Amino acid sequence: xxxxxxxxxxxxxxxxxxxxxxxxxxxxxxxxxxxxxxxxxxxxxxxxxxxxxxxxxxxxxxxxxxxxxxxxxxxxxxxxxxxxxxxxxxxxxxxxxxxxxxxxxxxxxxxxxxxxxxxxxxxxxxxxxxxxxxxxxxxxxxxxxxxxxxxxxxxxxxxxxxxxxxxxxxx
Length: 171
Description:
Elements: E1 2-4, E2 10-13, E3 21-22, E4 26-27, H1 74-83, E5 88-91, H2 99-107, E6 118-123, E7 128-129, E8 133-134, E9 139-140, E10 144-145, E11 150-151, E12 155-156, E13 161-162, E14 166-167
Parallel strand pairs: 5-6, 6-9, 6-10, 7-11, 8-12, 9-13, 10-14
Antiparallel strand pairs: 1-2, 3-13, 4-12
């Protein structure tokens, strides 16, 4: 299989060898003005990963930890953030991710002096974003999944590049 550009020109193999395209995605969500509008409901989700041991959290465990990104204690979170590398994978399935936590994660996936994070394979399946969140200028080189993700407020993907498969099914 070969990819073709908008003019029908052959862009090479459909795999991850080709240069990522720039796409602009605008996502807006309705925000309630009720007192509990900022609360993110625990959505029923069938999971096939080891979940966080914090209550009934559905977030995927981070590495060898027993907690998800949102429930790692201070030192554990700092260690997990330090383990992120530009061009590495990012797994946050089922996790509630604040805008601040997403910024911290993406900063760990950026080279010094370059604000653009580079992620090989990203999985945000079933993740919940209670705050405004920005994935601006992120380069997702491999498969990217936002399947069943919930954006409670604004999500921005301005200048984001998807180099391979990107799924926003039922997001």
